[in-house]
Design brief:
- Keywords: Coiled coil, Membrane, Plasmid, Transmembrane, Transmembrane helix.
- The protein has one helix and no strands.
- The protein is mostly helical and about 120 residues long.
- Helix content is about 95%, strand content about 0%.
Length: about 120
């Protein structure tokens, strides 16, 4: 009967040791999983921060490009206004010269007819 008790005690002892080792391994595994999760969360947060910074930088560059485009548009508009005013003034001169030439031809023609 004592041998069975000793055997039971040894079995209980082995079972307890095995349970302790299993619990220890589960605890270690949980700690490793938590560590990996924390590292992953940190990396994700770093990427988020970098992306926010990059987006802000791109937004600033887009704003600068828009301002440059507005300036170029205004410059082109002023150049177009200058060119159209020059064309208008030169076309008025051409119309005046054409009218003068026609008047001279009509005058000469009438002079030749009624002479």
């Amino acid at each position: 009967d004592t041998k069975f008790t000793e055997l039971d005690n040894k079995i209980d002892n082995v079972e307890n040791n095995l349970n302790n080792k299993i619990d220890t391994k589960f605890t270690e595994l949980d700690n490793k999983i938590d560590n990996v999760e924390n590292n992953l969360n940190n990396k994700i947060e770093n990427v988020r921060t970098e992306l926010k910074s990059d987006i802000a930088s791109v937004s600033n560059e887009v704003a600068l490009v828009r301002k440059d485009m507005e300036i170029n548009k205004m410059e082109l508009n002023s150049q177009l206004i200058k060119i159209t005013s020059k064309l208008e003034s030169s076309s008025k001169l051409h119309y005046w010269m054409f009218g003068t030439v026609i008047t001279l031809f009509v005058g000469i023609f009438l002079t030749l007819i009624f002479k």
